[in-house]
Amino acid sequence: AQKITQTQPGMFVQEKEAVTLDCTYDTSDQSYGLFWYKQPSSGEMIFLIYQGSYDEQNATEGRYSLNFQKARKSANLVISASQLGDSAMYFCAMREGHGGTYKYIFGTGTRLKVLA
Amino acid sequence: DGGITQSPKYLFRKEGQNVTLSCEQNLNHDAMYWYRQDPGQGLRLIYYSQIVNDFQKGDIAEGYSVSREKKESFPLTVTSAQKNPTAFYLCASRWGSDNQPQHFGDGTRLSIL
């Protein structure tokens, strides 16, 4: 069965430092997509970054980058120059399905706390 | 201003009562989704719909029902058969090609009285 694993329930990082949040996945599909979302304490889900299984380059969006290692089935999120506002829950998700009929599997999340 | 609107923000249910959570989007998205989130947990898929008048069960559909009569609307009913409904419910929609992310509403927090 398709699965997403986030092994770090909580992480601390000092302001202005970089932090890596781990995500491993399990799928037998050749075509899939990986997403990272941020959930502040207010509850809304904010899309951060996307990586397609056929993308050869690691995705980057501002301070966010995705360290995609296909053979190891990992898709770790790297946040550079952490800010106090980065304190939140972070979820890794995988798109499964094909032909436009997609559903998404989420990991259990990592709670990040940025220290001043 | 386009987006997804969930209402109400907070909802209380009595034992044996059905309640309906509203989800409306003006993004012209075809696909819509309902998720349940328990404290400290990830999101679990309840139901999803790719087009009007069609929907599929997700991983935890028992005790829930949905309808998709209009493209903009995907209400979720939590029935009395759902014995542990206390959770945070999130609605999402998605457009187009496979690299497009889901857009989420602000959620409804449901509690048992």
Notes on the protein architecture:
The complex is a heterodimer of chains A (116) and B (113). By secondary structure, chain A is mainly β. Helix content of chain A is 0%, strand content 56%. Chain A contains no helices and 12 strands. In chain A, the strands form 3 sheets. In chain A, strands 2, 5, 6, 10, 11 and 12 form a 6-stranded mixed sheet that branches. Chain A has a 4-stranded antiparallel sheet with strand order 3-9-8-7, with no helix packed on it. A two-stranded antiparallel ribbon of chain A has the order 1-4. The termini of chain A are far apart. In chain B, the strands form 2 sheets. In chain B, strands 2, 4, 5, 6, 9, 10 and 11 form a 7-stranded mixed sheet that branches. Chain B has strands at residues 4-7, 10-13, 19-25, 31-37, 43-51, 54-57, 64-66, 76-78, 87-94, 103-104, 108-112. Chain B starts with a strand and ends with a strand. Chain B has no helices and 11 strands. The model of chain B has no long low-confidence stretch (mean pLDDT 93). Chain B is mostly beta strands. The relative contact order of chain B is 0.33. The interface between A and B is medium-sized, with 27 and 27 residues.
